[in-house]
Amino acid sequence: MKEKSKKKQFNQKKKKKKKNYKINKAIEILKKIKPANFIESIDVAFNLNINPKKSEQNVRGSVILPHGTGKKIKIAVFTTGKNIKIAQSYGADFVGMEDLANIIKKQKIKFDLIIASPEAMELVGKLGPILGPRGIMPNPKFGTVTKNIKKSIKDARKGKINYKNDKNGIIHSNFGKINFSNKNLYENFLALYHSIKQSKPAQLKGIYYKKISISTTMGPGINIDHLSL
Q: Global pTM?
């Protein structure tokens, strides 16, 4: 009850002021609120000044967060030949072809990341209606369609995340957990921020970031003074 009251007071205060905070201060505020009794993720929403209806203005990419996400991810690999043993030895949770496709179709296991060798894409392409909406369809731009299975798995375990804007031109991502140190959250945020900035469409002029806000899984959003970054 006390926690709900604390959250309500913060929301009322936020509505009155509508203040933008520097990222370090925003992280401090999130840690003080603590509305949940579990280890929450720290999420960020980048509202970009793009037209998502124009394919050339869509933003997508990937970045390795220096301190990872704090989440243990479940990885599936579609591959053949010698890459099967490579994928297994470097920590893939499931490696296969038709058998893996059947698991995904029946949704027996929910994977966080799907990696595929180029020769497997004919099979994987048929899973588009399932993998696409979940944002885990293998893509060469994300390094998840690759001949270098070893690197792709190692990068994912290090904290590599993929991002792309939604139909409203917003990129949603998480960059750590509430129990990370302020410094680690700050460095993860900057890595993601700069990666998205580098992915800015060449033809786009003027303002790129319209608004940036961060929040915990259950907490309120806090606006970031992105001009100070």
A: 0.82
